[in-house]
Design a protein that fits this description.
CATH superfamily of the largest domain: Response regulator
Number of helices: 10
Number of strands: 6
Distance between the termini: 44 Å
Oligomer: single chain
Strand content: 5-15%
Largest sheet: 6 strands, parallel
CATH topology of the largest domain: Rossmann fold
Shape: globular
CATH class of the largest domain: Alpha Beta
Number of domains: 2
Structural class: alpha/beta
Order of helices and strands: EHEHEHEHEHEHHHHH
Strand order of the largest sheet: 2-1-3-4-5-6
C-alpha cells in the first residue's frame, strides 16, 4: 500500500474548507492532517507537522489579499520539499505570475470550481508532489487569449508547439500530452525539443527546461 500524502488545508471559510477536505479525502490516498483558517495558523501548523502538501486559499486573514501566495513563499523557503497548491476563485494570470515569481517547482494554481472534479484535484496533487507545476486549464486558456504581437521567442512557436507548451504548463507528462493531442509520444518529444531550442533552453536538464519554458510562457501576457 502506498503511503498517503499528508496534506494541510487552509481556508478561512468553514464550509469551503470542509468541502476541500471532503474532496481530498475522496481521493483515497490523502491524509488531511490539519485544517487552518488564517495565515499565521498555517505557518505555525506546517512548521510543526511538516506535511507533504499544503492546499491553501489565496485569500485569508489578516488582509484577505494574497496570503496563500505569501505563505507558499515563506514555507517553501523553510521546507524545500514542501508542495503547495493555491486555490482561487479567479483565473487571474497576475496571481499565477506572482505565485511562480521565485520558481515553479512543486507549485500549483487551481480554481475552486474545479476542486470537486477529483481528476483535476488528483492531477494537481500528484504533479506538485512529484516536483512539477500545475496550472488550472482555465487560467491557461486566459493566458493563450492574451498573447500579443511583441517580439518574443514565444512568437516563434508554431500553433502545435504552443498547444504542447500549454499542456506542459498544466503539468502533463509526454504520454498524457500525446493522448490529449492524439499524436505519437515521439512526436511530442520532437515538439518539446523544438520548443526548448526556440526558447534557447539547451544547457539544463529536461525538468529545468520544462520549468523555465513554463515561466517564459507565463510571463508572455
Amino acid at each position: 500500500m502506498n503511503t498517503p500524502v499528508r496534506v494541510v488545508v487552509a481556508d478561512d471559510h468553514l464550509l469551503i474548507r470542509q468541502g476541500v477536505v471532503a474532496a481530498l479525502t475522496a481521493l483515497g490516498d490523502v491524509d488531511v492532517v490539519a485544517e487552518c483558517a488564517t495565515y499565521d495558523d498555517l505557518i505555525e501548523t506546517v512548521d510543526r507537522l511538516l506535511p507533504d502538501v499544503v492546499v491553501t486559499d489565496i485569500r485569508m486573514p489578516p488582509t484577505h489579499t494574497d496570503e496563500g501566495i505569501q505563505a507558499a513563499r515563506v514555507l517553501r523557503s523553510r521546507h524545500h520539499d514542501l508542495a503547495v497548491v493555491v486555490l482561487s476563485h479567479h483565473a487571474d494570470p497576475e496571481y499565477v505570475l506572482s505565485l511562480f515569481d521565485d520558481g515553479s517547482e512543486r507549485l500549483g494554481y487551481l480554481l475552486k470550481e474545479h476542486v470537486a472534479d477529483l481528476d483535476d484535484l488528483r492531477h494537481a496533487i500528484q504533479v506538485v508532489r512529484a516536483g512539477g507545476s500545475s496550472i488550472d486549464p482555465s487560467v491557461v486558456s486566459v493566458l493563450v487569449g492574451r498573447r500579443t504581437g511583441r517580439a518574443d521567442p514565444i512568437d516563434d512557436l508554431s500553433p502545435r508547439e504552443r498547444d504542447v507548451l500549454a499542456l506542459i504548463a498544466e503539468g502533463f507528462n509526454n504520454a498524457a500530452i500525446a493522448q490529449r493531442l492524439v499524436i505519437a509520444e515521439k512526436s511530442v518529444q520532437k515538439h518539446i525539443n523544438t520548443i526548448f531550442s526556440k526558447l534557447h533552453l539547451t544547457e539544463e536538464t529536461d525538468a529545468h527546461h520544462r520549468v523555465r519554458a513554463v515561466r517564459m510562457w507565463l510571463a508572455r501576457t
